[in-house]
Specification:
This protein is of the alpha/beta class. It is built from 14 helices and 13 strands. The relative contact order is 0.16.
Length: 403
């Protein structure tokens, strides 16, 4: 059955006006149930956890329930594998701090030239401590990665590979399970930034066999909060970031300095409830997977509508894959218009009540590697499942007027 868009759009209060949200990769609309849960927590349970009185016990239970919902969302085997933080950038920086004393000078870390800076900068920062940082690039003509090139970069000294699950510029979905297999064959670990992937497809961290995997809820229909999955035995080995009396085995708490944001965690659990309801309400992984199957089908239709228009224009250059297959891309589509400044185009689109964006979107290294940093960077239309074909048509009409 096709996605029930009438139901979907009613869950997002921001969609009640006539504005078209095509900057979802920068931050999605927030579910009504998320906002209600945040309000509920703040007005009924705004106390510290860990005490014996009833309100504190309820706060502790709610945080535990939220963590368990996040574990269900990503397919983790236990709630203790979920680390909560303020953003993916902060979680990645904390992971780098917690990992660094396990490394020795001369050990190698592989980063990419095609990620958001969140999963590059923290690792490149360790270079000053004597670790060797290598860069895995992509073909600037095809915008495709080469797995054999990764193999050639790895040696017996490789300890970590940092990579993105989906590009926030190209929309390309990378084969994380295969990358993880190759990384583990060299005895290294893999950390994945899934910010641009999590709103679009079901996540199964066990099937992917990743060591660390993180994303932000504010780009996945929730509040400004993020989560990181880490294999339990790997989290045990990390250095703690909290007080000295938070022992080695106190995971995930030793990796959440200052405590997580309780009300936002309780609110973000509403994202999982929404996906469960969208997938039939059975309360299990199957419901989440059904929801994302329907989401993928809707997003493929949106992508094809826009891509078919862009493919037909001789003055437009699409960055990355030109197909709309749900298995190969998410509906984040970037392009350049020959001889035109990207900022000028976006500002003209703004006037039609349509929000899209221009720039490098904190994937500056990728935009520069593609030679697209000039003329205000690239144009990006980033859609999600609550967008409609009619909204895409509105954008197409406006682009025709501008171009």
């Amino acid at each position: 059955m096709p996605l029930d868009l009438a139901f979907v759009r009613k869950q997002f209060p921001a969609l009640a006006d006539d504005f078209v949200y095509f900057d979802n990769a920068g931050g999605s609309a927030v579910l009504k149930t998320v906002a209600e849960r945040v309000y509920e927590y703040l007005t009924t349970t705004s106390v510290q956890t860990g005490a014996s009185y009833a309100h504190s016990r309820r706060a502790s239970e709610r945080l535990a329930q939220a963590r368990a919902r996040f574990a269900l969302l990503v397919g983790a085997s236990r709630a203790e594998e979920i680390v909560i933080g303020s953003s993916t950038t902060a979680l990645c920086q904390n992971l780098a701090r917690a990992l660094r004393w396990r490394l020795k000078p001369g050990d190698e870390i592989i980063v990419t030239a095609f990620d958001h800076e969140s999963n590059i900068g923290p690792w490149r920062g360790l270079e000053a401590l004597g670790f060797v940082v290598k860069v895995w690039g992509l073909d600037p003509q095809t915008c495709e990665i080469d797995l054999d090139a990764l193999d050639r970069l790895m040696t017996s000294r490789t300890r970590l590979v940092a990579v993105t699950h989906a590009s926030n510029i190209l929309g390309t979905i990378n084969p994380i399970a295969e990358i993880a297999r190759r990384v583990h064959a060299h005895g290294a670990e893999i950390v994945v930034d899934a910010v641009a992937y999590a709103p679009h497809r079901a996540i199964d961290v066990i099937a992917l066999d990743v060591d660390y995997y993180m994303f932000s809820f504010y780009k996945t229909y929730g509040p400004h909060l993020a989560m990181m999955y880490g294999q339990y035995d790997k989290l045990i080995e990390l250095d703690g970031l909290y007080h000295y009396f938070y022992g080695r085995a106190m995971v995930p708490q030793k990796l959440e300095p200052g405590n997580p944001n309780y009300e936002l965690a309780w609110g973000a659990a509403g994202v999982v409830d929404y996906l469960d309801r969208l997938g039939g309400g059975s309360g299990d992984r199957a419901a989440i997977e059904r929801a994302f199957d329907d989401i993928g089908a809707q997003e493929a239709a949106l992508s094809e509508r826009l891509l078919s228009y862009l493919r037909d224009r001789n003055d437009v250059r699409i960055l990355g894959r030109r197909d709309s297959l749900a298995a190969s891309r998410v509906p984040t589509i970037s392009f350049k218009v020959e001889g035109r400044d990207s900022a000028e185009i976006v500002r003209a689109v703004d006037e039609a009540g349509i929000g899209m964006r221009f720039g490098d979107f904190h994937s500056k290294r990728l935009v520069e590697a593609l030679g697209e940093a000039g003329s205000s960077g690239v144009l990006r239309v980033s859609m999600v499942h609550y967008n409609t074909v009619e909204e895409v048509d509105r954008l197409i009409v406006r682009l025709d007027q501008i171009l």
